[in-house]
Write a structure and sequence with these properties.
641 residues; alpha+beta; five-stranded antiparallel β-sheet; four-stranded antiparallel β-sheet; 11 helices
Length: 641
């Protein structure tokens, strides 16, 4: 079993056992991270007394943390079936246990019938990443990954570029007290190393730029723009630990410059802050914390700054990034947010993900970086930069099999920049004639074999964004009642070049007119030659306009009407008007209009005269001509409002 806690820095938060609500030996072992003993004690205690819900959760987590996933699943399921509230953090462990013992399909089946995942983004993220893993279109980059020379038998993790060097965290500093012959408490410290031409690291020494401390110092990030290092450290004063009223020593974030000018950035005696990252472009300071408003375990937050000086309260990145599990080690590179998560749909342990950062500051769907970079163990602390050959190079931390210590730093190189295995469509839904934005438009994206991949509704201001697993080709269909149908075929590579993809829908009101108490297609008036039902070129011109309108609005149900004047016999007028209506229908169908769209064709003859020119009334031909007309009526127009 390989179970390590350094990636979460849980050992950095020093909590006196007397401060815990310890009710049993199981509790005592659990809060000492002795999970195997805790599980055994909880098992004994459950036979002698009734465990509290909190103890049952600790019991299940102890099984999970010792890789006894069947027992973890059974215990979590028992808690859930007892109607106790299962916190999202534990629900994630429950799902991960099910994934390990039964596979992805059974886990997905369980999710279909479960309602605990209240955040729709979590289920969507899971489906998204599973779809990517199952598609044949995905090309996994050929990462050249290597274990660096500078690793030790201890924990080495969370690297950071520092000018031409590398900073990282390690607990390799171990001494033996001569008098007591007992190992002293090991604290994490920040080290620096040289980077060789091949990316390996050597000449590891304690950092020369971080002020020395008796206590924890970890997870550095160097901002070249500010020329300052942000890092995590224990709360202390005058070489003495500072504890809150419950006996807890938390972790703070500080910054220091090359002249050793030091000051705290985020500090609270009861709250720990982890993994600082300063983004020069947005001036956001990202960090990790476990606040009460979080979504699971540790979440990623940010504060707005002015050149590193905090200017806002902490802002949670939201459920698109933060899950029921733990999220750690944020890193921004070329409009992408990299971070690690132990959410249930990963490969196991902590996995490294990337989300696109949008112009409005929001984040896209997190995409797993795939096997190689990720393993079945913990992978975190990812950093990356461009190299001289047009590819990428960087480092990350992992406790995967084959390492030298508890956690190791791995270097990687990739010849070409890997593309994120997604397609992003974004833009606005607009009226092409007025450029006025249209909200509430249903947008559907179809992939292979006409399968529906994604369906959304555009925002009230007409804006929309769709991110979906990589497809070589997609079809986009957009619709809204009383608006034209949008249908467009795209090749994915073209979408990437295009950037913004606006969707245009025309308003039905621009093509409909109210006449004779009915809604009709807005066409120029056309008439047939006397006693003829043959279509003239002028009539075909208008019908071609009608065909274009009808194809724009597939929800229209149509009725074709034909009327004559009162001249001639009424029976012959009926016959000729019906022939004209039928001729119009045939032309429409022959030119692509579906026959089911035309519900009725009616020749009214002279039954619906518009003026006084009925049988026996003398009228000049100008007034008779008013009655000779053909209309294409929209039977369901009012129902579409």
């Amino acid at each position: 079993m390989k179970f390590k806690l350094s990636f979460l820095l849980l050992n950095l938060s020093i909590i006196s056992l007397y401060a815990q609500d310890l009710k049993s030996e199981g509790d005592r072992y659990f809060f000492q991270y002795k999970y195997e003993q805790a599980a055994k004690e909880y098992a004994k205690e459950s036979l002698e007394t009734v465990l509290t819900t909190k103890q049952f959760l600790n019991y299940a987590e102890s099984y999970f943390n010792t890789d006894q996933h069947q027992k973890a699943w059974d215990t979590y399921k028992m808690i859930q079936e007892s109607d106790a509230v299962l916190p999202p953090f534990h629900y994630n462990k429950m799902l991960r246990s099910l994934y390990i013992i039964s596979g992805k399909q059974k886990m997905n089946k369980f999710l279909e019938n479960d309602t605990i995942l209240k955040e729709a983004a979590w289920a969507e993220n899971a489906k998204f990443n599973f779809d990517i893993a199952n598609t044949d279109d995905i090309i996994i980059p050929n990462y050249n990954i290597f274990n660096v020379k500078g690793n030790s038998i201890s924990a080495d993790f969370s690297p950071s570029f520092y000018k031409d060097k590398l900073l990282f965290t390690s607990d390799r500093r171990v001494t033996i007290e001569k008098k007591r012959k007992k190992p002293e408490r090991v604290y994490l410290n920040i080290y620096e190393s040289e980077i060789e031409e091949d990316g390996d690291i050597t000449n590891v020494i304690p950092s020369t730029v971080i002020p020395s401390s008796k206590f924890h110092q970890a997870t550095p990030y160097y901002s070249s723009e500010l020329d300052k290092i942000f890092y995590v450290l224990s709360n202390e004063k005058d070489n003495e630990m500072l504890f809150d009223e419950t006996g807890k020593n938390a972790l703070s974030i500080a910054k220091v410059d090359r002249n050793s000018n030091f000051n705290f950035i985020l500090k609270n005696l009861s709250t720990s802050f982890f993994y600082p990252f300063y983004d020069e472009a947005s001036q956001r300071l990202y960090f990790v914390a476990n606040f009460d408003d979080g979504y699971g375990g540790t979440d990623i937050y940010y504060v707005n700054t002015n050149q590193g000086q905090i200017m806002s309260a902490p802002i949670n990145l939201g459920p698109r990034v933060n899950t029921p599990g733990n999220e750690i080690s944020p890193f921004v590179f070329e409009n992408g947010l990299y971070f690690s998560s132990d959410v249930f749909y990963g490969y196991g342990g902590m996995d490294i993900y990337k989300s696109n950062l949008k112009a409005n500051g929001a984040v896209g769907v997190p995409i797993n970086l795939g096997e190689g970079i990720n393993s079945t163990e913990d992978d975190f602390g990812f950093i990356v930069k461009n190299n001289a050959t047009g590819g990428l190079e960087g480092y990350f931390s992992s406790n995967r099999e084959g390492g030298k210590g508890k956690d190791d730093i791995y270097g990687f190189k990739v010849a070409e920049k890997p593309k994120l295995n997604t397609i992003v469509l974004q833009g606005a839904t607009l009226n092409p004639n007025t450029n006025i934005r249209i909200g509430g438009v249903t947008i559907k994206v179809y992939g292979k074999e006409n399968s529906l991949i994604k369906e959304i509704v555009s925002a009230e201001d007409g804006s929309y964004e769709i991110e979906l697993p990589w497809q070589e080709k997609v079809t986009v269909i957009a619709s809204k009642k009383l608006h034209s149908l949008y249908r467009q075929y795209f090749i994915a590579d073209d979408l990437k070049k295009k950037g913004q993809t606006d969707i245009y829908l025309e308003s039905a009101a621009d093509f409909v007119v109210e006449k004779e108490g009915k809604a009709m297609l807005k066409l120029n008036k056309f008439t047939f030659n006397t006693k003829s039902s043959k279509l003239t070129s002028a009539i075909k011109t208008e019908l071609d306009k009608a065909i274009k309108i009808i194809k724009k609005f597939p929800e229209f149900n149509l009725q074709i009407e034909s009327h004559t004047d009162s001249k001639g016999g009424s029976s012959s007028n009926f016959r000729v008007s019906q022939g004209r209506a039928d001729a119009i229908k045939k032309y429409l169908i022959d030119n692509g209009v579906q026959s089911r769209r035309i519900l009725y064709t009616i020749g009214y003859g002279e039954d619906h005269i518009l003026n006084k020119c009925a049988n026996g009334v003398y009228c000049i031909d100008y007034f008779h001509a008013e009655n000779r007309r053909c209309n294409i009526v929209i039977l369901n127009y009012k129902e579409l409002y």
